[in-house]
């Protein structure tokens, strides 16, 4: 098995550039993103959707689950199929598709109920993703680059490298900007390279209002979400100063009480990192169907490894997630134990 010396990831997929020559033939295409898509998953998928549509392909975007209301302003979002709501329709589209692009996820399990269907898919699977250790054996073509800020940046590169830069219109620019802006923490993380800023400058030249996009994404919530945030920071935040770690654990009944919807807890895990000295922030939420964990870190503490080791998850070195089949209390206890096991790296 060959390894990429930079990332130590095995190579199985053919270079994505090999499909450029095939782009001129109209094809039935499906684009799939990860469950509970964020702005990068939705933005990169819709950016690619608008691009492939212009080339004459017949394109359907499928999300494994529902998505947050604050993504609904994206052009094309109203056409996205929710796999859980429309399984039969989605399966029949997949049965007829020739290509499936998989965007912004590294393992098929990130598509939950779609995973088996994707695994059995007979056509060509193509990966575009920036998470670590992808299941590259599932894909015929693909690109996995953990140095990239976002999948949206990778879709931008894909369009440029395919020789169709002129196809990037305002709709595509808005979708890709939303993805790159949110995945870089509003251009804060080290992943916001000079190339990212050049990309944004180029997108701006194609004419879109970036202030409007920030408003759509960040000033578009209901009162209950702000009250919930206040409650959680007041009553559900524990700080372990000895380990430079903070934990927020939220019971299911509080999500119900505050009428919390998909996407309302996005960003909550970042608040504890604003406390001086905190290196690791964790958010553990009882979502009833499962316990969802989010981890964020500053500096060298690798939450991708942490999530993989203890919580069946993964992601990036400073932002990762996972899950647990235990109760909320048991998961919190497991987290505290894991934190203590990592004391030397946290202190
Ligand atoms: P979030 O905490 O916002 O859900 O996710 C942070 C990062 O970790 C994202 O890049 C997301 O794709 C990844 N991630 C979240 N949950 C999981 C998981 O259960 N498994 C894996 N492999 N990655 C996850
Ligand atoms: Mn992403």
Order of SSEs: EEHEEHEHEEHHHHHEEHEEHEEHH
What is the subunit organization of this protein?
single chain
Provide the CATH topology of the largest domain.
inorganic pyrophosphatase (n-terminal core)
Main sheet characteristics: 7 strands, parallel
Which small compounds were modeled alongside the protein? guanosine-5'-monophosphate, manganese (II) ion
Low-confidence stretches: none
Rg from alpha-carbon coordinates:
20 Å
Please report the number of helical segments: 12
Q: Pairing-aware structural class of the strands and helices?
A: alpha/beta
CATH architecture of the largest domain: Alpha-Beta Complex
What is the terminal separation in angstroms? 38 Å
In the CATH scheme, the class of the largest domain would be Alpha Beta
Which whole number gives the mean pLDDT?
95
Mind explaining what this structure looks like?
The longest helix has 16 residues, at 39-54. The strands form 2 sheets. A 7-stranded parallel sheet has the order 1-7-6-5-2-3-4, with helices on both faces. A 6-stranded mixed sheet has the order 8-9-10-11-13-12. Helix content is 35%, strand content 18%. The protein starts with 13 loop residues before the first strand and ends with a helix. The protein has 347 residues and is α/β, with parallel strands linked by helices. The protein binds guanosine-5'-monophosphate and manganese (II) ion (MN). Manganese (II) ion binds at residues 40, 104, 130, 150-151, 183.
